Amino acid sequence: MAGGAGPAVAEGAQAYGDAQDQEPGVGAQGEAAHLLAYDLIRGVMAEAARVGGIEPRRVGFKGAQHTVREFGAVHLHDPERIERDLPHLVSLIGQKRVGDRPDRYEPEAVGRRPEPHPLLRMTRGKARALIKRGIIPYEKMK
């Protein structure tokens, strides 16, 4: 699996793929779970930014995602410990900031690439008939 994920992750992904093939609706449940996790992480990031007095866009998503994942692994099945350490999680996520990239922007328009052939403005059958007679219907005008 790409990115250096371990064999356990690869096996889990394979099992997820098998379950998705066998049971209808499992894919939708997986997507819903991912969206829920995304929203929860974004919510914790917003809280961390509020507590830290910074803009929410300055908190890094990947850093927050890794911190939440490790927090969950360490605090597995221990609600008292989770409740006790939750403020610490928020402060840790507030420390995961993205760098200042002032030249980072994306154009809002899409440029169309020049194509090597002109557009065919008639049916292929008509074009073939014209070509057979020696007339090239789509040749560029000069």
Biggest sheet overview: none
Summing up helix and strand content along with how strands pair, one would put the structural category as: mainly alpha
| Portion in beta strands | under 5%
Count, helices: 5
Radius of gyration: 27 Å
Rounded mean pLDDT is 77
Compressed to H and E, one letter per element, the order equals: HHHHH
Distance between the termini: 53 Å
What is the number of beta strands? 0
Give the helix proportion (percent range): 55-70%
General form: elongated
Low-confidence stretches: 1-20
Q: How does the SSE layout of this entry go?
A:
Layout: H1 7-22, H2 26-52, H3 61-74, H4 79-95, H5 124-132
Helix pairs in contact: 2-3, 2-4, 3-4
What does this 3D model show about the protein?
Helices cover 58% and strands 0% of the residues. With 142 residues, it is mainly α. The protein has a domain at 23-95. Helix 2 crosses helix 4. The longest helix has 27 residues, at 26-52. The chain is elongated and about 85 Å long. The two termini are 53 Å apart.
